[in-house]
Amino acid sequence: MFKILVSDPLSEVGLQKLLEATDVEVVQKTGLKEEELVQIIPEFDALLVRSQTKVTPAIIEAASRLKAIGRAGVGVDNINIQAATSKGIVVINAPDGNTISTAEHSFAMIMALARRIPNAYHSMMNGQWDRKSFVGVELNQKVLGVVGLGRIGTEVAKRAKAFNMKVVAYDPFLTEERAKKLGVTPASIKELVSQADFITTHTPLTKETKYLISTKEFALMKDGVRIINCARGGIIEEKALYEAIVSGKVAGAALDVFEVEPPMENPLLKLPKVIVTPHLGASTVEAQENVAIDVSEEILHVLREQPFKNAVNLPSIPENIIEKVEPYFALSEKLGSFIAQIAVGGLEEITVTYSGELTEIDTASLTRTVLKGALSYHLGEGVNYINAPHLAKNRGINVVEQKSTANKGFTNLIAVSLKTNQEEKTVAGTMLNGYGARIVKVDGYPVDLQPEGHLILVHHNDRPGAIGRVGTILGNNNVNIAAMQVGRRDMGGNAIMILSIDRPATPDVLDVLGELNEITSVTEIDL
Ligand SMILES: NC(=O)C1=CN([C@@H]2O[C@H](COP(=O)(O)OP(=O)(O)OC[C@H]3O[C@@H](n4cnc5c(N)ncnc54)[C@H](O)[C@@H]3O)[C@@H](O)[C@H]2O)C=CC1
Ligand SMILES: O=C(O)CCC(=O)C(=O)O
């Protein structure tokens, strides 16, 4: 039974999937302090939050069972991703469910700002009938600058086009082709801020986007420009915005988000040219249902070890690629584990070479899996698909992925080599049509064995009787040999034996084998 903690208020309809699941117990406890979360988190397999809960390193550190953190929304700035990644916890978000709501809110803010609706409302509610103070501007033919043309930015741009606005967009990932399709003009940030009548931001808050719009950018803007931020506080520097409004450069600003939330002492709230909402972009019935449904489904996938797509701390694998790489996951992990068990010394570099049909697909996920297999042997259960590359990097292990057309004999081949500070070892495996995974080469010797169970790898000199003596010692010690592979390069030269045994041999038995004259090394492998 999986235990899931829901620590922020989430849509009940959205949570239905979790509440109905027979393998899940859902505990809903909201408004907990950090210390309280630290206390209870060790009981839970997954944590589900909206934006109130700050998932700090202390909470993650205490989360001994946690496999997933789900964010019902897009921005994950309330979750310490680095701490989660180091601990191998997958962070899931719901990137699509609130796109339309946030785009509509942004557009509502653009219109409210243009027509001064909140100010007029406020005046009337105070008993005034003032028609002179609230003269607005049209959107028709005005230039809208969209900073960040992702999901939300794109929807805002489409709505602006419907209002006959001209749209210029700044986004480092915007291609000419996409811009053309959307009917927007790509621009640099300088061009955008100097051309726009309205500027709306739709990027995440990152090191690059923090204060993306500041004093320098305000100086380039047209007089009377209007600013909208429904993305994250801090993309526009509030101090610079305040000065630009007071100086008359900026005619108005509409803000849904703030550098500090709630923004109680914020001087911007004292300016009549500023209209505000309390981070309501995603606050619609539809968006809250959508994000809760999406994140609940994804959490179940993670816990049930089924494929999931919206992990923030993992590269996403497109569905057409998943189909192609999935059959190789088990083999990749076994190859990683095998090589780690046979190599002596501190790991320095792991190289994964793909051949045959694998040269044509994105194999990054398989390399992660090889790495997981290799590092798990040394670092234990804490290693998983999420933190394996991070752990390798932290330990200075170089990871190389390459494709090769050299191995023509196999329709697919994964070759793994591991360099340690003492030696270099290699192993290669393939998926044989109808026979499943096979290891086909060890240290350059051709073999053919199933990568599973207990194995003993023996390096020896190719002399008559060597194989028999190994068999006799194992038999005398009640270790049954289920299968055996021998490989050699030259008659009478170096050779290997790989024995598949029914139960692990004890260290004493391995020592006795190692003492035989012909034998140069004995390694037990568990796959
Ligand atoms: N007010 C609210 O309630 C909500 C706010 N948001 C905010 O809106 C943001 C955008 O959401 P989506 O459109 O779904 O995300 P998205 O990931 O689809 O789009 C973000 C876009 O920003 C672009 N970008 C990244 N760095 C940039 C830079 N330095 N300069 C210019 N563009 C840059 C990316 O290329 C991407 O196209 C989220 O990160 C979140 O912070 C999202 C939902 C609700
Ligand atoms: O949960 C919310 O209402 C905040 C939404 C948001 O900012 C996001 O999804 O990034």
From TrEMBL:
Keyword list, A-Z: Amino-acid biosynthesis, NAD, Oxidoreductase, Serine biosynthesis
Pfam family, one: ACT
Domain ACT: 455-527
Molecular functions (GO terms): phosphoglycerate dehydrogenase activity
Catalytic activity of the protein: (2R)-3-phosphoglycerate + NAD(+) = 3-phosphooxypyruvate + NADH + H(+); (R)-2-hydroxyglutarate + NAD(+) = 2-oxoglutarate + NADH + H(+)
PROSITE patterns: ACT, D_2_HYDROXYACID_DH_1, D_2_HYDROXYACID_DH_3
EC number(s) recorded for this UniProt protein: 1.1.1.95
The UniProt record lists the keyword NAD: yes
Pathway assigned in UniProt: Amino-acid biosynthesis; L-serine biosynthesis; L-serine from 3-phospho-D-glycerate: step 1/3
InterPro entries: ACT-like_dom_sf, ACT_dom, ASB_dom_sf, D-2-hydroxyacid_DH, D-isomer_2_OHA_DH_cat_dom, D-isomer_DH_CS, D-isomer_DH_CS1, D-isomer_DH_NAD-bd
PANTHER family: D-ISOMER SPECIFIC 2-HYDROXYACID DEHYDROGENASE FAMILY PROTEIN (AFU_ORTHOLOGUE AFUA_6G10090)
Record-stated family: Belongs to the D-isomer specific 2-hydroxyacid dehydrogenase family.
Reported function: Catalyzes the reversible oxidation of 3-phospho-D-glycerate to 3-phosphonooxypyruvate, the first step of the phosphorylated L-serine biosynthesis pathway. Also catalyzes the reversible oxidation of 2-hydroxyglutarate to 2-oxoglutarate.
Name of the featured protein: D-3-phosphoglycerate dehydrogenase
Species for this entry: Ammoniphilus resinae
